[in-house]
């Protein structure tokens, strides 16, 4: 799944566009992205969306795998805790992602590259702001140590 969303980016200083993967809940963040698109609200084109039933269904090992494959940043777009249909899904997700911090450090990945953010289904301004902020943060941080893995994966797909 992550392989299909990873694409090669030119990595020059001036043109660097970070690749952001957003796991978006089907009741909140994903419909918000849809409304933003239908309303012609522009947000960074470097954001790739994956719809998930609940944010708590994003396994930590998938987050780590995405970083290893060269994704520059990950946003987990949750519902607001009081709106979570899966009782405590948002809380569990925040706890699980906080526990990833030591593993991310071991991999040479800054904590700012992973963000858990509540986005309601009609809050397009929040969606736009979160994606733009994440893009700017990642531009300041630059490519991950795994950026070459993304380029290699892309080249393998072209050959095969």
From TrEMBL:
Metal-binding keyword on record: yes
Give the record's keywords alphabetically: Iron, Iron-sulfur, Metal-binding, Oxidoreductase
| TM spans (from-to) | none
Q: Name one GO molecular function term.
A: oxidoreductase activity
Annotated ranges, domain F420-non-reducing hydrogenase iron-sulfur subunit D: 20-142
Q: Sorted alphabetically, which InterPro entries does this protein's record hold? A: MvhD/FlpD
The name under which this protein is listed is: Methyl-viologen-reducing hydrogenase delta subunit
